Every structure is written in C-alpha cells, then in structure tokens.
Amino acid sequence: MARTVFAPARWLSRAVRVPGTERHALTQALKAGLAAALSWVAAVWLLHLPQPFLAPYASLFAVEATVYRSLRTATRQLVTVVLGVVLAWLANQLLPMPVALPLAVLVGLLVARWHWFGPDGIWIVSTAVLVLSVNAASGPLLLGRLVETLLGVVVGTVLNAVLFPPVYRDRAVAATARLGEEMAGLLHEMAKSLREDTVADRASDWVRYAEDMRSLVEQVGEASELAAESRRLNLRKARPRYRAVAPQDDARRLVAAWPHVRTITQSLRHVATGAGAATTPDRDSAAGLADLLDSIAEAVELATEPGGCGDRLAVIVGRNHEQLDELERRAEGLAPHALAVTLGLGGLAPPLRGVLNSLGQDGA
Fold it and tell me: Which residues are listed as membrane-spanning (predicted)?
C-alpha cells in the first residue's frame, strides 16, 4: 500500500535526478502547461479576445514528441480547427441550433475521414461542437476564434522547438548497445561450444534465444527512427554531442545482421542433430569457425561503440571475410572424402557472409 502511495513521489524524484524517460515526460508536460498558459495570456491581454478557449487548446497539441512532429501536427491542427470553426459558422448561419449541431457533427465526421488528417481529423467535429455550444459562431467572434487558434499553434510549436527541444539519441544508443551486447554474447557462446564440442546440447537454446531477440530488434528500429526524426529541424543537433555519428547507423547494421545470426543458430542445430546430410565440422574446422564467431562478436561490440564504426570496424570485417574464405576453401578441399562435413560448413557460410556484409555496410 505504502509503495503505491509514494510511487508518484519516487517517479518525480527520478525525473529530477536522472536523465531518461521520466525526465522527458516531465519536461514535455511542463512545456505543454507553459504553452497553454502563455497562449491564454496572450489572447486575453494582448489581443483582448473574449473566452479564448481555443488558444490553449490548440497549443497543447502542438507540443509533440519531436520538433518535426510538432510542425506537422501544428499544420494539421490549424487546418482542422479552422475547418471546425468554418463548419460551425455555416451551420449556424443556415440552420437553427437543434439542427445545426447534429448536422455539423455528421459533416465533420465525414470530412475527418480524409487520410491526410490522420488521428487529428476528430478535432474538426470537436471544434465545431465547442464553437456552437458557446454561441461563438456568429458575428465578430468568429474571426477571434481563428486568430486564437493560430496563436495557440504558434506558441506551442515555437516553445517546443526552442525550450529544451526533445532529442532521443540516448534512448537509441542504449537500445542499440543492448542488442549488440546480446548478439555478441550469443556469438561468443556458440564459439565456446564449438571448442568444447557441446553444440548438440546447446543448439536448440541458441535458436530460441535468437528468436527472442526479435522484440529487442524491433525496439532498436523504433528508437533509431525516433532519434532520426528528433534531429530534423532541431536546434540542439548543432551541439557537438549531437553531431556525432547518428545512432541509427549502428542500429541499421545490427538490425540487418540479426536475421543472419538467427540463421547461423538454425544451421548449427541442423548439423548438430544430424537432421540432414550435413554434420558437425571436424575439429580443425570447428576451431576455425569458433575463431571466426569470436571475431564477428568483437565486430558487433565495436559497432555499438561511439565512433566505432570507422576504419577499425572495416579492418575487422575485412579480416573476418578472409577467415571465412579460408573456411570455404577448406570445405572444398575436404570433398568428396568428407561430404557431410563439407555440407555443414557450406550451410553456415551464407549466413556468416550475411552478418559480415551487414556489419560492413555504409551507414549513410
């Protein structure tokens, strides 16, 4: 009970002390409150508008997760509110109130279905209902509603762009680092089992582990996309910290490598269980394959380090390609005397090459 009661206080303490999700949520909430207050004060004290409810209303929806999204939402918000005001005015001019209100709702819902409005289309109806309900759809009040809507949108958008504009680089970096750590750990584990000849005991676990990594891969993709969007039109990206290599470059490499790592686990399970004609590589080939997996794991770890995706990564990936070439030549030399071993190495070569190509791809 006490834990539940004090949960809000602990959340607020984390938001103040530690950078992260809580602080971002608190910052955006404070900005939204400030935008609503400023837009209302400006509408009342500067423009002398009566009952300026649309100004703070519009400003709230302009404080979005990213500056780019704020501008996009502000444009749609402005269009939807203007359409709602115009719809209310037309309904009020042509029809009595008992008929004007339901007709405005009907027409507004139909117009809101246009795909460009997205989830904001509903505000056409909401605005029309609000304007009609407070009897502000006639006379000079109509122009005031349009002006205060514009005021709210501008205040919310500018405030979000200037005051601590949101950047999500840290979240993307953390998610990418976690994916790299788990992927490298799996590769090291497979290398260890190859040396200890325990592949058959662990192969099924590797397949499940690689498949479970899917949710983390999706998180990395979403976080890196949000990080890229948060840099668009953002004043903070000019700072040295945000001019570094974009986190989505590292994420793109690891996300592209994951399907190949999963295939490696499936191929090792296939050869370890003897499900087909292929079989586990001989001792020398297994040792070479283990060395290659360890080296690929090092490349994965390097790819997640800040600034690590440069010449050092290219050198390691190039060396790994040479190691794989050597394993393929060895497999060719074994045939036809050890066809089963050759098939086992041959089945592993394509996904191994796929991982290397993914890690070596240009981040641009």
Answer: 74-92, 122-143, 150-168
